[in-house]
Amino acid sequence: MVASSPPRSFTETLAFEELGENQWQTIHPPQRMGNAANIAYGGFAVSVAAKAACLSVPDSYHLYTLMGNFLGPALTDRPLRASTRPIRKTRTFATCQVEVSQLQDNGESRPCLVALADFQVKEKGVLLEYSAPPRLQYSHWKDCLSAKDRLEKMLREGKISPEMAARFKPSFGMADTLFESRHCPEGIAAQNLMGLAKSLPTTQDALPLTQKSTADWSRCRSGLPSATDNIAAVAFLMDGAISFAPLMFSRMFLGDSKACSSLDFALRVFRNEVQFEEWHLREIVTHVGAEGRTYSESRLWDEGGACVACMTQQSILRPWGEEKGNERGKL
């Protein structure tokens, strides 16, 4: 039974009830964020897959890769279901297949996402340890404004209209209830309100598209009591904004494309111990746009500068045709 009261923390938002062996259902339905269509934010499905996969193996196995495909949008009026199937189990590695689905009104199950999850037991020693830094030198989180404060500052300075601010809040407000985020002023998202204020100039306008970037500091607002909860929170956040970053970098917003959503993803976790209650820096870049698709990446560093995770995605980016006036915002 789906809970009637809204969740108050990330752990509660992603709470499971067990349906059977290696089968779970979320207590709460997924929510909408960012997408122009009234469908659930894809990060819900990715984090549900990550959590279900982690629950399928012993605690001594640590997730290092979750690769999969979005098979269809999730609805916001019903819970997500997850099932896993073990494929490999050795003393060092484990692999399982994960399917995330929703029960339809006719009683049939429709898959939303399918993925392979790989795990490894902690190694006894490390030969090399290194990670590439972010592209830019970004401001520390202490010197960055919260999303609310930045929105109010842009309003006071006349950079955006009250109508624009009203459009922004419902699109991205859900994430702000779960995560505390502060956009770095050097990044594009802070300068053009994630592309919504597309007429505003940015300090990166002269750069080629593949050299542009945006970054933010984020941490979970609530406690994350287990390693599984931390990994699920990372998976949830890392999916955000990758698909429409090319639009944001090109003075466009979601309504400027007929379809803009993720097709596949590869989440790679580089550290066994992730503490997402602490501040982490996320940077988003884009690499390729061709054949109606884009390929973009987000990377995540802890405050000490260690890269703890990355996510790459191919996404659909479909232009409008003659039907633009009648179908704007539909996928």
From TrEMBL:
Q: Name one GO cellular component term.
A: peroxisomal matrix
Q: List the Gene Ontology MF annotations in alphabetical order.
A: fatty acyl-CoA hydrolase activity
Matching SUPFAM superfamilies: Thioesterase/thiol ester dehydrase-isomerase
What UniProt keywords are attached to this protein's entry?
A: Hydrolase
Q: Where is the Acyl-CoA thioesterase-like C-terminal domain?
A: 206-316
**Gene3D superfamilies under this entry?**
Acyl-CoA thioesterase, double hotdog domain
Tell me if Hydrolase is a UniProt keyword of this record. yes
Superkingdom of this entry's organism? Eukaryota
Which positions fall inside the Acyl-CoA thioesterase-like N-terminal HotDog domain? 30-120
One Gene Ontology term from the biological process aspect of the record: fatty acid catabolic process
* Keyword Hydrolase found: yes
**Family label:** Belongs to the C/M/P thioester hydrolase family.
| PANTHER family linked to this entry | ACYL-COA THIOESTERASE, ACYL-COA THIOESTERASE II
Specify the protein name. Acyl-CoA thioesterase II
Q: Which organism is it from?
A: Trematosphaeria pertusa
